Amino acid sequence: MRMERVISGIRPTGNLHLGNYFGAVKNFVRMQDEYDCMFFIADWHSLTTHPTPENIRQSVRTILAEYLACGIDPAKAPIYIQSDVKDVLELYLYLNMNAYLGELERVTSFKEKARKQPDNVNAGLLTYPCLMAADILMHKADKVPVGKDQEQNMEMARLFARRFNRIYNIEYFKEPESFHYTKDAVKVPGLNGTGKMGKSEGNCIYLCDDEATIKKKVMRAVTDSGPERLNQEKPEPIANLFTIMELVSTPDTYAYFDDQYNNMTIRYGDLKKQLAADINAFCAPIREKIIAFSADEAYLSRVAAEGAERAHERARQTIEEVRHIIGFR
Ligand code: AMP
Asked: What is the residue with the minimal CA distance to atom 5 of ligand 1?
């Protein structure tokens, strides 16, 4: 029996941060041993929100180096750059023909982005679900690891697969499943007291941050005036620091500060110093690899070229079959 196929894309709109790592990339590293995985860097997708990217080639290289540094092994899971595999455009076109304006306008992420960028409500933004569906269906993926924000786009991908089958009266596309690697999704909080770590929130620790930057960011993290009762529940800013500690520190370290909080002897300065040191210890080996991969232009080009070739092989077969089904010979 063939291994289940997994495909996942990431937009090259910034460096990877701890949220990306623990919420997504760490799982990809485990998945590459268990599934037939492929990853891609969605540079075309990023044009919907960043139509005039400053240096898209560099952003793509950076993300590629960061993926590799996190442990994605291209021998197990090819990585390609979306714009290197042009086959997806043809499937995108066919899916666009069978997608209706009303349903695309109702997609929450479209409405949100249209609200955020009222001067640039472009057609690419509207047909984002068609391109995403094309990325997935092109590979006949069984599973797609997605965050909650992508759930509706996954429903659209399934809808487009079903609709294609119905229109052409054939059981061709299989409906791809959304995939959550762990039962409870990890949510990495930011350092500004509330909410999750995110690029647009300005509250991130990036995997490429150096030791001094990490320390500065952690020492500035929002706290409060300290616990007021024994064993009290931690308010959000404090719980957030502990959540990050749980991810990067040893269980003993976590228990040590947790006890101190519970018996009201905690000094947040000590907690932060330890947390900064542990985040740095966690990031340092990844950071070193990011620097090494980033400097190896020839290797990055080879990884991207091999990834593109593998993706193209699969995609070409799908496109040929789809042409045949529609009636192009
Ligand atoms: P983004 O950088 O926002 O495009 O996020 C890419 C993926 O990283 C998301 O789909 C999530 O799976 C994951 N992610 C981003 N931020 C966080 C976070 N703070 N906690 C957990 N996962 C996250």
From this structure: 20
